[in-house]
Amino acid sequence: MRYAEDVAADQKQFEIQLGHMCNNRCSFCVSGQRTGMGEARPLSAEPILTRIEEARAAGHRRVTLLGGEPTLQPAFLQVLRRCAELGFEEVVVFTNGVKTAREAFIDEALATGAPISWRISIQGATEQAHEGTTNKRGSWRRIVQTLRHLHARDQRITVNMCMVSSNLASVPAFAELLLPFGVHQLHLDTMRPMDAGIRSEEELAAITPRLADYAAPLEAMARAFDARAPGFDLNVGNVPYCVAPSLLHRIHHDGEHTETVAVDDADTLSQPWNKYLVKRRDKTHPNECEGCLMRDRCSGVFDSYVARWGSAELRAIDEATLRKLDPDERLWVVHRRAILRALRQASSPALRIKTAERGEREGQVVAEWGDASVRLRFAAEGTWRYEGFALSLVERTGSAPALADLGEALGEVFAKLGQPIAPLGADLALEGGSVERRLQRLRGHAPFGALQWSGVQATDAGVSLQLETEGGSTACVFVEERGGKALGRYELGKATEGCKPALRDGLSALLGSFRAPRTPT
User: Fold this and answer.
1) Residue 396 in 3-state DSSP?
2) CA dist., res. 51 & res. 447, Å (int)
3) Strand 384-386 and strand 258-261: pairing?
4) What is the pTM of this model?
5) If you compute the radius of gyration of the chain from its CA atoms, what whole number of angstroms results?
C-alpha cells in the first residue's frame, strides 16, 4: 500500500469510507441506492483499522471518516478510539445527522477521546428541499436536533451540500439556518454523475441543474451571509467560474492533496488513490474555455453534461473581465502568471528556478544556486519591491556567500520583470544585525525621488546599493558594520550634466531615511 511521499506532512489529507450503508436515500448518491437494493453490508473493524494505522505511519495527521453513513458501521466507535490512540490531530466525522440526533450517541463518540470535528451533510436549506433530496421523512428534524446538540457541546461544525435540482433554489436560506448554531463553514459542491449510482439518462437529467441556474441562488446566498456574518467561510466547489463570476473568490476546484480509501462493489477497501486526480477523469474543457484566464484553476464541466446540453453556457474570462471582478488582485497569480512563466524561462544550470501557480504554495518561487536555496512568496506588498509586485522571504538555507550570490542572480532576473523600487540582492544573506536593520529602513522609504535603486551587492563589511538616475548619473551607497554599528557612506559615479540636482536630492532623501522612522510597506 503506497501513500504519497512528495507531499509535506502538514498538507497530507486522508479519508476512508467505512462502508456504503446509509439511512438516507439521496437522489444523487450510490450509497443510499445500494442500501435500498440490499447490496450494502457492514464492514469488519480489522481492515479499516489497518488502513488507518498505515495512513498514520505514512505521516497523515488528519483523517476523515466517510460513508455511506459512517455512524451506522458497527466499528465506528472502535475506529474513533483507535484514531485517538494513534494521535491523529483531527478526526472529521462526515455524517448525515440521523444517529447524532441522539445526545447519548454524540456523548459516546466524544468519550472515545478522538479530536472530532463534525461535517454535517445537509441536503437543502429548508425542510422541503432537504427531505425532497434525501427521500427520507423526518431527516430534517434530526438534522436540526444534531446541530442543536453539537452547538450545546461547543463542537466544531462544518456543513456540506451536494447541489441538485431539488435543493439548489433553497440555498439562500442557509445563513438563517446555520449561523445560530455557530457553524464554521459551508461548502456546496456539484453532483458527480459517476458517484450517483445506476441512474437512467432521464433520472440524471432531472436531478442535474443547468449551469445557467447556479448563479442566482448562489449569489443570493452569498449576500445573505455577507449581511449577517461578513467573513463567513462560504465556498462553492467545481462550478465553472464563468457560470457565477461574481463568486470568483468563493469558487474552488480540487483542494489539498487527499488520499482516499473507498469501498468497492464487493464491500472491499481499495488502495489509496489521489482524490482530485480521479475526480477529473470524467470532465472536460470545451472549446469555449480556450483563452480563459481561470482555466488552470477550473476542472471544467462533466462530459455527460456536454453530451446532454452542450457547452454554449460557458464563457472564457478575459483580462478585462478579471480586472473588473478582482480589482484588488486577490487572485494575484492569475493576474501575474506571465511573470511566473518568465521566471521559469530564466532558469539555468547555475540558477535553478521553480514556481507554483496552484495549491498551498501558490505564488511561491524556489531558487537554488550552489548549496544555497531560497523560497520567496509573491504578493502585492513585501520586503523586496518592484513595480507591479513584491516579494517576502519564506525560508532560506545555505552559506552566506552562496546566498549572497543567489540574491544577486535573482535580483538581475527580477529587475527584468519590473522596475526596481527596493530590489533583492546580496542582502538575501543577511539575517538580523545592524546592517539588515538599516536596509529595512531604506526599503520602507524607497523610492528616493528620481534616484532609482537598481541593485544590492556584497562587500567585505556589508552591502553596497547601486543607484542611478534616468539620465545616467550613478552613485553607490555603502551600508557596513564597523564596531558593531551600521554606518553609511556614499561614492559618486557618473554625474551626467543636468542630472546633478536629481542625484543630489535623491541621495539627500536616502541618507535622511537612515534617521527617519520606517514607513510601513
Assistant:
1) strand
2) 58
3) unpaired
4) 0.76
5) 28
Residue-level length of the chain: 521
Are the C-beta atoms of residues 378 and 332 closer than 8 Å to each other? Answer: yes
Q: Could you tell me the three cell numbers for 314?
A: 460557458
**pLDDT truncated to tens, each residue of the chain (521 aa)?**
454 544 444 456 899 999 999 999 999 999 999 999 988 889 999 999 999 999 999 899 999 999 999 999 999 999 999 999 999 999 999 999 999 999 999 999 999 999 999 999 999 999 999 999 999 999 999 999 999 999 999 999 999 999 999 999 999 999 999 999 999 999 999 999 988 889 999 999 999 999 999 999 999 999 999 999 999 999 999 999 999 999 999 999 876 677 888 887 777 888 877 776 777 788 999 999 999 999 988 999 999 999 999 999 999 999 899 989 998 888 878 888 888 888 989 999 999 999 887 777 888 999 999 999 999 998 778 899 999 889 999 999 999 999 999 999 999 999 999 999 999 999 999 888 888 888 888 888 888 888 888 899 998 888 989 988 877 788 888 888 887 787 778 888 776 665 677 777 888 888 787 765 544 44
